[in-house]
Amino acid sequence: MFDQNFERKTAISKKKKLYKIEDGFRQYLHNYAREVELPVKYDDLTYYSSSVPLLDKNGQDTLWETVYYSQQDMRELYPSLTMVYAKLKAEGNIKVMEHLRVDRVDYCTFGNSRPFRVRIINNFNDNYDYFYVKTADASRLYGLELEHILSPNRINYLEWKDSLIEEHIAGIPGDIFLGRHLDQEECNPTRIAKEFVKFNERCFVHLLGDMRAYNFVVDITPDFDDMQYRIRAIDFDQQCYEGQRRIYLPQFFKENLPYVELCMKYMTPETVKQYQSEERAKIASRVNVSNNRLRELMDVMSKDRLSSDQKVDQLKQELAEHYKSKVFSKCATMGEILRQSLKIAVGSNYLGGH
After folding, report:
1. pLDDT band at 13 (very low <50, low <70, confident <90, very high)
2. What kind and span of H or E run contains 57?
3. Per the count of CB atoms within 10 A, which of 167, 253, 291, 299 is most buried?
4. Contacts for 121-126: CB closer than 8 Å, 24+ residues apart
5. What is the rounded distance in angstroms from the CA atom of residue 120 to the CA atom of residue 84?
6. What string of DSSP letters covers 89-124?
7. What share of the chain is helix, strand, coil (3-state, %, to 5)?
8. DSSP characters for 121-162?
């Protein structure tokens, strides 16, 4: 049941190993137009000449640095970055490039992917957008693809020669939402609690780990009579990586305690079960709609090594205990574990496997 039992330690690997994209997965990415030839690779952005800390509007350190390039490098790099944005957003339509320019490039040393964030400005109206350039990691790409298929959110990304391009996912970071928005009068705590229950269930069903408050955003949409909320993951590094079952349940992270307290205050056990069932039914519907694509993904994922043997053994044992099922005993990879977990969770017959 939904609780706030933090007594058992939820331990996450301090440094996650990056896993290469194997041939089978690369072919899948090509088949679904995720692998696209790009004029810029991750390494091209690493040759900056200087950097300064990036502060927010309140003068606080954001843990990002704004990086600067030589004039020669800028003349070559910035038009290429604009082309990358056009490929990401407009399938390479060069007409959109005429009124776009690179305003700033930021770099973050915090986290596994060490991303660059590119800020694009529209010269006509000064509107801006962001995209990210990262080192491609198979775990992260599987996470992005599963989010696209199984969640209510569409994910836009491209990969080329082990470089990953991701669009910006808009929303208020979960930890900032707690500090600045939760106590506002127009905030609807019941709807937030409902969304956290559904988000918690989605993460567990497709085994997306480490959803601490700063790894997801809250998207707020004004409705005709109230606010609607959706919680969206923004970090996919811990897709099917850890061995501990609790890491795939956001409710067990101390950073998420205020969300858990909302659920306990405004939800009954029966209501929680209702929303969990509703979310699994929606995931099952998405599985049925995208069954061919998901089955192809599961086939290649089941062959790939995405974690250590120790973590694989731990997770299959813990899920076997949770579901009271022996089907996990034959699983040798994280992909096989996920396939069986999905079969149990949503009752799908479309996923193949043993």
Report:
1. low
2. none
3. 253
4. 123/99, 124/99
5. 11
6. HHTT-GGGGGGEEEEEEEEE-SSSS--EEEEEEETT
7. 45, 20, 35
8. EETTT--EEEEEEEE--HHHHHHHHHHHHHSSS---EEEETT
* Residue 34 φ/ψ region, left for φ over 0, alpha for ψ in the -120 to 50 degree band, beta for the rest: alpha
In Å, how far from its chain's centre is CA 178?
Answer: 20
More confident: 352 or 25: 25
pLDDT tens across 236-286, in order? 999 999 999 999 999 999 999 999 999 999 999 999 999 999 999 999 999
Q: Which two tokens stand for residue 10?
A: 């939820």
Tokens of 239: 């897709």
Residue linked to tokens 């918690």: 200
Answer yes or no: are the C-beta atoms of 220 and 227 closer than 8 Å: yes
Q: Rounded CA gap, 188 and 196, in Å? A: 13
72-125 tens-digit pLDDT: 999 999 999 999 999 998 876 677 677 899 999 999 987 777 899 999 998 888
- Looking at residues 113-138, what average pLDDT do you find? 93
For the chain, counts of helices (H) and of strands (E): 10, 10
Residue given tokens 């091209």 in the structure block: 44
pLDDT at 268: 95
Task: Tokens for 210, please give them.
Answer: 């480490």
